[in-house]
Task: structure prediction
Amino acid sequence: MGMKGKVALGAVVGIVVIGAVSANAGNDSGDSSDKGSSASADRSTGGEKQKSDAAEVAEKKVAFEGDGDFQVGSDIKPGTYRTTGNTDGMCYWERAKDSSGEMDSLLANDNVTGTSYVTIKATDKLFSSSGCGDWEAVDEKAKGSPASKMAGDAGMLRVGVDIAPGTYKSTGNTDDSCYWERAKNADHSIDSIIANNNVTGTAVVTISSSDAYFKTYGCQDWKKSA
Result:
């Protein structure tokens, strides 16, 4: 358990769900990293910048490190967490129902480039993270300045906080390497997926204001077209 390169159980780059999934689920959080996403808002200069930077440092208080096994309830609290600035898919995490290390214990997992959000539930027993940036607790009520463009490898962005709803276009994708996903929460289960696709050429997707998150991996940069 906790090994990089495990195949993610839920929605993962390369797997396409045919049609829309209509099940409900609970999710949270959102934000993009300066490295992993172009959805970061521009900062002001001078004294305002210093205040902004200080506030940002306060907001990004580390909840737990990006490497290790953490028992839910004793080492870490249930809630939604975010990791940012991950490169080359080397960040791997998993939620587990026990610490046996067996495949049957996995509840959800993912290999991450850019930003990822994950909701750890009170019923989870173990959360494992390997090769990831430190995890930050997410304020579910937090508001941001959502961007109208994003990097093609931004990872997972929170709709209405990191990225604005609307129709986006990504052009010049090759070999089905572009994967996108609209999600209703950060559970990372099949039921979390509203819609997804692997794309060659031009990709066009409409992100609804009711969507909770948008994932993008291996795509060319996205720009809002409507």
User: Anything to note?
Assistant: DSSP finds one helix and twelve strands in the chain. The mean pLDDT is 81. The first strand starts at residue 62 and ends at 64. Residues 167 and 206 are 4 Å apart (CA to CA).
